[in-house]
Design brief:
Largest sheet: 4 strands, mixed
Structural class: mainly alpha
Number of strands: 8
Radius of gyration: 39 Å
Distance between the termini: 102 Å
Strand content: under 5%
Shape: flat
Low-confidence stretches: none
Mean pLDDT: 85
Length: 685
Amino acid sequence: MKFKLTQDTIKNVTKLGLFIALVAIIVQLFPKDKQFKYQYEIGKPWSYELMTASYDFPIYKTEKQLDADKKELMENYSPYFQVDENVATQQLNRWRSDWKLKNNTDPKYFAFVEKKLKTIYENGIISSLMYDRMKSKGYKSIVVVKPSRLTENVSIDELHTSKTAYEEILMDKPYFISDAELSNYNLNLYLVENLRYDSITSEAVKKDMFKNLSLTSGMVQTGERIIDRGEIVTPGTYAILNSMKIESEKRKSVFEESYLVLIGEIIIIFMLILLLTFYLYLFRPYIFGTSKNLVFIALMILLIVGLSSLVLRFSSLSIYIVPFALLPIIIRVFFDSRTALFAHIITVLIISFMVDNPFLFIILQITAGMTAVTGLKDMTQRSQLTQTALYIFLSYTVMYLSSEFIAEGDIARIHFLPIINFALSSLLLLFAYVLIYILEKIFGLISAITLVELTNINSDLMMKFAEQAPGTFQHSLQVSNLATEAAKKINANSLLVRTGALYHDIGKMKNPQYFIENQEGGKNPLLEMSYEDAAKAVVSHIADGVAIAKKYRLPDQIVGFITTHQGRTKTKYFYNSYVNANPGITPDENVFMYPGPIPFSKETAILMMADAVEARSRTLGEYTEKSISEMIENMIDSQIADGQLKDAPISFRDVETVKKVFTEKIKNIYHNRITYPELQNQPKK
């Protein structure tokens, strides 16, 4: 059975690799209590008590010393080259053969060239690139390995390249050989590299040289005095302290760390990350199906775990200064509340194995995570992030004080310092604005904050839209309202649909007069064109919309609504008119068809349905529940029959729900109003 490397296989292998890498990195981030407890710098006084050596240990050389030793060794190093003796034989035979073909009668010229070729090949020819590299690295000679395995040192200056060999032949030309005779032969053809760089032997020799290099420069004996309080740390003392630090960590690694601890950490982290993976696979397939989404979530988890590890291992700060709620906030802004909370809980459970009092830690962080996703449930304004940060601080404070009341039972014994850490942590959450912007650019995602900003109808683009194509702008507002309500009912991204609907027809800004909603009862210029040209003019609003979106740097997700809202449908008015006017002639359907693509998500499918339904609703003669319902059924069913929704992950149940929402909304828009009676008698004053 042959194994086929398909695209799906590559994706699955990539996801498996990401899963393993995430577990491995988190295991490495777990504190191992190996840190050296002293801080010191060259030229600064030692601020601790007298230090003496508790055991024998070597003084390790500094990186600078090792680099100097390596440099000294490399001065006597020569790279290895393999000689191919067949090259010289082949080229000399070729020269003799070409000489005979020329029927040249001057044996002196022949003998001169043959002798020079032999001499040059004996010294060796290497590539120009390799020659320059040898010179730039300062090598004085090379070691030539012959087929007999004998070696010979050859000076760099004796070597040739094809160019220098040719030049040497010209320079050594005897007086009896003319330039005309030399020009009869292209001597470059006989100058071929016969020395090849032997990287394996060269690296092996270099490795052996470095292997024998001493990494130490002395020993410190047990009980030997190292440094006392107030003494300046000299470079020598600095090297001894670094050596003691290295040896201390080695000893702890060997004697203190149990393999069972490592195995336990791996199993716990593996199981927790596996739970998150199962959640995404079963309940969020649209996230799990895209590798960049998984990388994004993995990086967010690593960011929080990494910050926690840094604080615990390299500082004396409280763990509560880390902005743990940053993770649920950012994941919520890009995806959804449930995913944000699930990822947050998994991350908190992992970090709880690093901290003291894990029970209190878990309670506080899960409460903060719930507060974060609740505060951002419906993103409608940018200030929600700031409000959410305040709510998180309050939840931290309330839960912490409550737990302290239970534990201490006396307000005088409560520690209020953690509240300051909670405040700093909540303040750091405001950096989410900057981080969200950076992540959008890196991963090509679109956040709820950006969508909120784009839905501002007072923006420059929206103001121009309303001014240049007022009818289309009003149509877009109505479509936006319809699509938003439908998206909420079927658990689609309502904010994304709302934004996409506002911009889906911005291409009509370029030639608004071609579209009836902007004509205000005047002449329709399309009626003065041929049916083909009229269709092209209408279809062009898709390309015009994409161009405007690119100009204003709208996200690709919004551009997707512009390109898909008409799918691959026809401009039926002009297509039908052309067929009716030209019986028996088969039209070019591509002329009358929108470029597509067809909708590829729930959100783009909802917009296509809402756009068609809203436009058709304006043509109804009467607005009864029956006429509205039939119109919606016919429009959406025709789109399904035409295959316009086949690529969108939307179910028949979702479609029926959307139809009901549209029916109710359009009924409310066009509901009957009471007729006011005319005034028959003027009342007396």
